[in-house]
User: Fold this.
Amino acid sequence: GKSRRLQANLRANAAASCPQAAVEVAVLDWDDCLREGYEPEGDRFEVVLAADCIYYESQAAPLAAAVAAHTAAGGAAYLLSRPRPRRRGAEDLAEGGGQGGGGAAEGW
Assistant:
């Protein structure tokens, strides 16, 4: 399905961009991270890097929750997005994670 095609595309991009690096690819539904008691599978990451991954205001809280849940204590998260007219998602994330998600964005 859709997630299988996405994973294949991500693997191909990672292999082309970083052929000597060990890159792992997995699908993460950000909405799952909003559930009470959510715990990520596996280790948390020292560095979380995301680029141009948010387009809609409604994505701010789920993305903030996903990043907070998957970043190790003392780790760092870098979320990059170039400003675009009529797309408030990145601005909402920077301002506190969207509706109800402000706590997750604190301390980045």
